[in-house]
């Protein structure tokens, strides 16, 4: 099994407590960062490591830090732990099992970015993760790891854990800041980008939970060590969240560039398709990314390779779909999500996601017309690139790619009034897998 | 009734943030915890604590799905129905719960014991299908597991 970085030590009992975390080298990276580096040197180090954001867009982390405007406004760090992308469940695991690693990453990043107030925005529905992070922050305050003059240095930092309250849109960075400022989570117009005008008008860096959880290991191991994993442009490892019709769904940390087939079929990871059915489709990075056909199963899981076959690595949520799944039904379910989660600020997304769901519903239930398929593509074209924020674009990914790949299933619904495969005729029993564990293999 | 203790905690929160208004969400969580849902008294208390108008607080409270606008059952059940749970047949689970509880999704049992709701992806796709009872996860839910949960809820109702 390849070396684990972010999920290392995850199996150790009590790792979520400060004492055990420190027994295994916790907060050594922080001490090292505070004594051996100037903030700008840390930014350079993370740039050299090649670390890219693990939230979805894959933007180089060090470069993001370097973009912070130099002015007299207070700077802020927001940790985006509002994990809500369908198919993604890594940040929840990292917060529940190793919250101190995240807190250490937040402190080091705040020091590197000259931030004195940091926020950890935890998704509201993840109550346990919220409790774990809150407790870790309290423990760290009591031990002098947060607060005034951290570890005897002249650096001081305040960390506030903020619980969300149920809104996917708050994972979008500008909506997250609106939410933190005590308003409805509506996205802001960009530019200005958060690095220039962000939270409370100050320069703000916003990083994903997994990204920040990776920072301590990079400080300890060095930029070259981290960059030795992965591919030339996608460096390091990543926690892939494998779900859907596989024998062993779960979180698996793998070097970037590992083929999808390894994740799905290798005995150490997914262990193959459930009931040895045929793979039909893959969603490589959460439901906001374009669906890939089974012929793309050997594609390496890195930003460039997945983009080259027409999708995105996104949030790392890999969903495997078997041959018995009606794609019209599956796409309808994904579209309902965006209808429910559209914040309502802009018309293309608010109205478009509603209409797309209506049309998919009538196709699914056998009341659709041939022209509905064209109409769907047309609506997608009127949302994508024309909505206020990326949520609108995301809502169209599964529809456009699904119609391209599985047109005959849409047409079959029009001509026959029911599914071409699976649902409607056979329904799998729920809980078909015994003992499949969320953390299997990741630890 | 919003207790003096909760009012104090809300004021503490308001001074914890760089701007008092930022405490509106945690304050709403507090009043909901105390009263079970967002009442007009709760809105007023939050508005007083964080220095916003009641309308502004209500605008926040109605945006986020976790703030309930109506009284909820003793056990609030959220069944995830997003794609990964869908592929593991969460729909059969929801139907089973509806049948056993004698209510539709979105409803509360007449005795006020159970509220059945569906939820968007709960970040537990590796253990699908999943549900939450009062915010705590139950993973890899089978129909048998669901029946056992219903038995537990019924017992606490009688107790």
- Class computed from helices, strands and strand pairing of chain B: alpha+beta
- Listing every helix as H and every strand as E from the N terminus to the C terminus, the arrangement of chain B reads HHHHEHHEEEH
Beta-strand residue percentage of chain B = 5-15%
The number of strands of chain A is 9
> What helical percentage do the residues of chain A reach?
40-55%
Q: What is the number of helices of chain B?
A: 7
Residue runs with pLDDT of under 50 for 5 or more positions of chain A? 426-443
Helix/strand-derived category of chain A reads alpha/beta
Report the major sheet of chain A: 5 strands, mixed
Major sheet of chain B: order of its strands?
2-1-3-4
Question: How would you briefly describe this protein structure?
Answer:
The complex is a heterodimer of chains A (443) and B (159). By secondary structure, chain A is of the alpha/beta class.
Topology record:
The complex is a heterodimer of chains A (443) and B (159).
Chain A: H1 18-23, H2 28-36, H3 39-49, H4 61-66, E1 76-81, H5 90-97, H6 99-112, E2 117-122, H7 127-142, E3 158-163, H8 173-180, E4 204-208, H9 209-221, H10 223-227, E5 237-244, E6 250-255, H11 260-265, E7 279-283, E8 292-293, H12 303-308, E9 317-322, H13 327-341, H14 347-364, H15 370-383, H16 390-405, H17 407-416
Parallel strand pairs in A: 1-2, 1-4, 2-3, 5-9
Antiparallel strand pairs in A: 5-6, 7-8, 7-9
Helix pairs in contact in A: 2-6, 2-9, 5-6, 5-7, 6-7, 6-9, 13-14, 13-16, 14-15, 14-16, 15-16, 16-17
Chain B: H1 4-16, H2 24-35, H3 40-50, H4 54-61, E1 75-80, H5 83-87, H6 90-101, E2 114-119, E3 131-133, E4 136-138, H7 143-158
Parallel strand pairs in B: 1-2
Antiparallel strand pairs in B: 1-3, 3-4
Helix pairs in contact in B: 1-2, 1-3, 2-3, 3-4, 6-7
